[in-house]
Amino acid sequence: MVSFSGHILPVAFTVLVWFFATGLIAWLDNRNRATFPRSLMIGGVIGIGGLVMILVASHSVSALAIYAAFAGALMVWSWHEIGFLTGATAGPRREACPPNARGWARFSHASMTLIYHEIGLAVTAVLLVSLSWTMPNQIGAMVFMLMFAFRLSTKVNLFVGVPNTQTDILPGHLRYLISYYGPQRLHPLMLVSFTAAAALAAWLGHAAFTAAPGSPEMVGASLLFALSVLGAAEHLFLALPFRDGTLWGWALPSRR
Question: How far is 104 from 110, CA to CA, in rounded Å?
Answer without folding.
Answer: 10
